[in-house]
Amino acid sequence: MKAMKLPKELQSFLEVAETAEQETLVFTKKKRPVAALVSLRKIDRESLALSTNPQFLKIIETARKEVRAGKTASLEALERKFGVKAPNQRMERTRKTRRSS
């Protein structure tokens, strides 16, 4: 990811992006999208980097295809297969134990 200071000529775009908050501004050329401007006020750099990483996007798309094809397993089935309980259940018991001490 590359960062640079916004030139004065483009300051108005920055103001629009900050005003739009969650909205993404898409720039087009001959009616085709060529760039986007996104406010980063509520987005961390890691999320931004992942959302534009081709390998990560491929993993997400593969997972979506598997879900659409019904290739899923329930949490209960995985617990039975591996003989473990969900971490949240164990944590809940630990918290209760600590409170009663």
N-to-C series of helices and strands: HEEHHHH
Using the CA coordinates, give the radius of gyration. 22 Å
Task: Give the strand tally.
Answer: 2
* Largest sheet descriptor: 2 strands, antiparallel
Q: What oligomeric assembly is this protein in?
A: single chain
Structural class: alpha+beta
Arrangement of strands in the largest sheet: 1-2
Assign a percent range to the helix content: 40-55%
Features:
alpha+beta, elongated, two-stranded antiparallel ribbon, 101 residues, single chain
Q: What would a concise description of this structure say?
A:
This protein is α+β, with helices and mostly antiparallel strands.
Q: What would you say this structure looks like, in words?
A:
- The mean pLDDT is 80.
- The N and C termini lie far apart (50 Å).
- By secondary structure, this protein is of the alpha+beta class.
- The protein has helices at 11-20, 45-51, 54-68, 75-82, 87-100, and strands spanning 24-29, 32-38.
- It is elongated and about 60 Å long.
- Strands 1-2 form a two-stranded antiparallel ribbon.
- It folds into 3 domains: 10-39, no CATH class; 43-70; 75-101.
